[in-house]
Amino acid sequence: MKSFQPEILAPAGNLSCLKAAIAAGADAVYFGGQAFNARRGAGNFSIEDMKEALRLCRMRGVQTNLTLNTLIKETEWTDFLRYMDEVLPLGVDAVIVQDLGVAEEIRRSYPQIALHASTQMAVQDLYGAQYLQELGFQRVVLAREVTLEEIREIRRKTSIQLEVFVHGALCYSYSGRCLMSSFHGGRSGNRGACAQPCRLPYQAEGREGYWMNLKDLCAAGQLEALMQAGVDSFKIEGRLKGEAYVAAVTRYYAALRDEYLETGSVHRLREEEQKELRQLFNRGGFTQGYYQDKKHMIEPHTPKHQGIPIGKVSVISKGKIQIASKEPLHSGDELEIRAGSAPYPSVRLAASMLQGEYKAAFYLRGQIQKGQEVWRIVDPALQRRILEGVQELPKVPVMMRFCAHIGEAVKLSAAGHTVWGQTVVKAQTKELTVEAVRKQLEKTGDSGYQVVDITIELDKGSFVPVSALNELRRSLLQELMQIKPWQKQCRDREALLLRDNPVQERQTYWVGLDRPEQWNALCETDHSCITTLIPRMEGFEKADKAAFLRLAAGKRIVPALPPVGRNAHTAWMKKEIQEWQSLGIQEFEVNLLGQAKLVEEMGAKVQPGPQLAVMNREAVGFWQRYGSVMISQELTRREAGQLAQLKGSYYMVYGRPVYMITEQCVFREVNGCNKRPQGHETMLQDRKGERMSVRSHCPLCYSEVLAQRPVYIAYEKRIDAQPRVELTLETASEIKELWQAILEKRMPAFAVQTGHWEKGVE
What we know:
Helix content is 28%, strand content 24%. Strands 1-2-3-4-5-6-7-11 form an 8-stranded parallel beta barrel, surrounded by 5 helices. Strands 25, 26, 27, 30, 31, 36 and 37 form a 7-stranded mixed β-sheet that branches. It has a 6-stranded antiparallel β-sheet with strand order 9-8-33-34-35-32.
């Protein structure tokens, strides 16, 4: 018998799903309220729903995790504080957050509540976990891309709780590092409104496919290894899914976990065992995710639920289709006949179409031939069967102690709680009996409790009215259900520093460089207003760094670490940092939490980078401890203006938005893996003709999806924040034209966009 028991953490998009999760054996649930959570499309919880959810969970020992895991704009901060003060005192056990400003506020106001770092923080290495532990987080939800070996390393060297996903949808991008939905339709994934453009078809290398459509995760086969690695919580994705899905998946993983705890191992899983899960939802089967291998995770043919194969077309006669199934058929089944390419001919079975348990016949248009496969997409009978098993929540066993002594108040106790009632008197006619006491106290009704044992101390000849016994029982049950509210610690919002000096009439610029040649092009222009150069470490790895520094003499140099920071990348980053340090550079731009700890550990100064999304003063204040901080590209002119006067803030006035940072590779999916030191560049084109550039960084084995049209707002006569220019794919001639346009405050001669500067995002 194993002593360590990782929890099964189930999703709850509404109260019905929460009840299904509890009934199916969840140890913990996570849910969102009506605001500031990353699943706006879920039913979510009203205040009354939340109170009931907390009551149901607390009495059964189920942990409650509230999602306040979106980025909060400064314009929303007052509403956020009001909402926070409405929901947090209710008594949730933990809050899942993405925004460091939100984390700072909760830590100040409700220090009793555990802080969990959302997977949106993209924590993917040991340094990131250590950093969060030092900040006071109790748990980190690791990036889905983290491998088993990396989990083991993090567990060996930290005590912070580790939570990992084991089932459900996978994002193509690192969570919290995706701007694709934001820039393609104004719906920000960082704010709970993702429109999932990654699930759409794209042209790549002359072929159309769903090149960013990841299969759903099913890590059941990795569960034993994950338990041995020391994972504290197994998380099931699915707040947009229904009760049957939540119940079945929760029950499945709870059973596997319990098997390991009882026997020390999990039996070798067979595909047949997961048939129920595949019937409920799958995208071209399942993947075991990144725990072992990041290949073969894409389903390029369709992003939709594909069901399971159940039989074939057996007869076609005069337009009528007859099918033979190896599974029982039911009225209401939704079937597809895999004829040609999607969309496939489909039918919903009516009772009149059934010809016994395994046959059905119906008329259906389409290019259908005998022998073609029949797939069941929806199985209502399965869903009903699952829900029948979770209709009633498990009763909570209670052991009571009843004391009735003449001349004293009657007393009832259970689970450390005690209530008192009327004074016990001598019976005038009929005395109180043990049987009568037991009968009244066992009537727990629909409270959720079940009395399993009652110890009764009763003086002979004593009397208490039945009504008093009932009131005593009600009072005790009410006491057991009582949730202690959290008390707010009243503290003022911390003062943040304004900029040291007002913006000068002639603005000075920071410039990010992807490769040395871009600086050569700028050297042929008037670059006197450039104060800071930010060379990307990867682009300068093989370059003559000393020669570059001689050319850039007089400029502040801040090399930028890559937007990924896995344990496997740590040695590479340390080597590059040391090379720059040997040339006198002691300041580095970081794009992950863990990189801040790494840079400080190496005795250098941290400069927060553009991947550290900042939308409010609290988040600015957090990063002010290091230096300047970039205002989020998802803010409008007005929204950004509220942060622009804060010390060290800067804004991107030119650059291609990085839509995604991903461990996947479009080039590999289309052509096969062909690693090159310089990587690959692949174009993606959507149905509207919009193009994106995918850059595969082969040495570090990750990809970036970049907008083809850069964002440009340098035409503004005055930008209060420090302006930054980010160069990536630009040629020398484009750089010269761009720089001239910036100096002249005009639009450049090539295609650009203004991004969110005018309209903003949801």
